Amino acid sequence: MTGDQFGMHEQDFVVPPMPSAPPPAPADGARAVAVAVLNLSGIGLGYALVRRWLLMVLCWVATAALLLAALPADPDGVPVFAVVLYAVFLVLVVAHGASVGLRTPLVWPGRAPLALALGLVLLLVPAGGAVLYDDARDEAVQQMLLDRLDRADRLVTAAGKQPFSTGEDGFRKALAGYRDLRADHPDSRAAERVPARMKTYYATVGAAYARGEYCEAIPPLTFLRTVPATLRGTDLGELRTWPDDRLATSLYACGSKALTGGEATWTTQFGELLTTFPESGPAAKVEPAVGSAVSRGEKDLRGDDPCAAVEQLRGLGSQIESLPGDKADIVAALAKDTQRAVDSADAGTYTCGVDQYQDGDFKTAQTTMTEYASAHKNAGNAARAKKIAIAAEIAQTVPAAGRHLPTTSTGGSISVTVQNDSPDEVTVLYTGPVTGSFTLQGCGGCKTYPWSSTITPGFEPCSDSGRNYPQRTINLPAGTTYFLHKPKGDSLSSPASDTAKISPGYIYTECAYTTERLGSSF
Question: Are the beta carbons of 508 and 417 closer than 8 angstroms?
């Protein structure tokens, strides 16, 4: 055999390339559903079973992005746009997975029903995650509400370190926080803790009372009485009436302090006490406190400043009269205190006038005594009040006339005749051992003297023997008597005075006349 006959001939062999994907399988609806359900879990397992690795990774990325947006759990939940985008993505991968799975054989398991069952089981993962997320979100909500409660608590603590006028806004904001928790989230742990927090709230707001600062305690305690209306439906228990006794006590203590100190604000506190808590123990103390104040004013009438006591009693009378009240016994007792204050003030006016006179305030003393005598004509001191008014008027021109307080003595053994050589009616006032006044009619035919004539040697008024001068004779005791003559109805004339030292055995004459210059001379 030759090599040519039996030799092997070389031939070229070509290996065909491996297919990029399994060959299309017959259409299988169950398999399409299985792949779609497996993709519905969000982890792209359907794509894994049909060897679509990049699409599986894309599912992982999308699910991871959703988790980043959702975690940690927020009270507001997952942002809506993230949920919508992810839902659209799931619809697309489910539809696409069904399309791919319709004619693509599975890597594992080979049977579509088993894959479908696996897909249904895997749906429990996102379902369970959703349940856990809801629980986490609920806890986040609870923590958020507890944070709100804590912020309200901090507001109360901060406001409690300030005067109520400064911290009131903080207290109101804290109360609004408690109210919102109870109204908007009644089943939350924070809302359940609000009633217990209110004990601290009340104690902090009303701390001034605990410190014995009763006037400062009135506004916060008044505010606390409005809290139950703000927290409707909240069981505050004893806190509902917690401020009442404390406020009543504070109103009395503050009003009593103001009353003792002579401040006018006491009527506000006592008035509110009698109106708001008429049956309380402190309200029963109001009338005795007022009665004691009237008694102190009456005692002060005998002190160093009776005029101030008169004004105090007059003020008390009007203030007591303004007090409101519904209880008949208290109203009747207060009415008696009012009348006692008014009567004591009227009676004390005389004492006040004497004090003004002795202090040298003659003008005021004259007014005081004139008004007293006019208003109390039947009073035992009315006659002397008139004499003190006369002496006070004289003393305004002749201060020496006010050295001694006039008495009610009358008459004397020495005659003094006063004549009027003036065309004007003249009132004559005198004081000394005795005090009085009278009026002389104007002299018909008399005239006003030129001023120059009054300084001429030998000038003698009331010397015309042929003229019948109006005159009056009074009897005075020995001693110094001060006279004041003032024209009546002539506002341009000034009163003139004379000081006479009267001794027994003499007859005295006084003469009144008018000069051409402003004023009168005697």
Answer: yes
Q: How far apart are CA 101 and CA 48, in angstroms?
A: 11
pLDDT digits (tens, 9 = 90+) for 406-446: 999 998 899 999 999 888 899 999 999 999 999 999 998 88
Classify residue 14: in a domain, yes or no: no
- Tell me the pLDDT band of 165, cut-offs 50, 70 and 90: very high
**Residue 522 and residue 516: Cα distance in Å, rounded?**
13
Amino acid letter, 517: R
Closest C-alpha to 223, from 288, 165, 265, 155: 165
| Residue whose tokens read 């004139």 | 370
Taking the chain, what is the end-to-end CA distance rounded to the nearest angstrom? 197
**Edge-to-edge strands, sheet with 426-431:** 436-440, 426-431, 479-487, 496-502
My answer on whether 354 and 284 are in the same domain is yes
Are 272 and 235 members of one domain?
no
Contact 364, 350 (CB under 8 A): no
Spatial distance between the Cα atoms of 231 and 242, rounded to a whole number of angstroms: 15
Within 8 A by CB and 6+ apart from 33, the residues are 98, 101, 112, 116
The closest of 275, 259, 167, 174 to 215, measured between CA atoms, is 259
Query: Which of 194, 225, 240 is the last residue before a domain boundary?
Result: 240
The full length of the chain comes to 522
- Is residue 17 situated within a structural domain? no
